[in-house]
Amino acid sequence: MDILVLFLMKDIIVVDGDAAWCVVGVELLNSQKLMLEYEKYNELQAKSQRMQEDYETQLRELEKSKQGGLEELTEYYEAKLRETCARLEQV
Questions:
Q1: Environment class of residue 15 by beta-carbon count within 10 Å: exposed (0-12), middle (13-18) or buried (19+)?
Q2: pLDDT tens-digit map of 31-73
Q3: Three-class DSSP category at 91
Q4: How many CA atoms lie within 13 A of 54 on its CB side?
Q5: Residue 5 backbone dihedrals phi, psi, to 5 degrees
Q6: CA-to-CA distance for 24 and 21, rounded, in angstroms?
Q7: Helical H runs in the chain?
Q8: CA 90, CA 10: separation in Å to the nearest integer?
Q9: Is 17 in a helix, a strand, or coil?
């Protein structure tokens, strides 16, 4: 009969044959689950990074648009002011 010695959490566990393979199978399954969760975490982290970059890009574009709108309004009202001043000088 085969005997397998497993080191788990600082304890030595001695199991024989089928039980050993069962423990090894559970360990492999848990390892696979852990790797899958790690991959999901990495994907979510990458998605979060992309969303953050998109958000920052949108903020920059909004700031440019706002600045452009302010410049247009300033030019419009400065022209109106010049026009009104010119009319007042004619009077």
A1: middle
A2: 888 999 999 999 999 999 999 999 999 999 999 999 999 999 9
A3: coil
A4: 6
A5: -105, 125
A6: 5
A7: 17-90
A8: 98
A9: helix
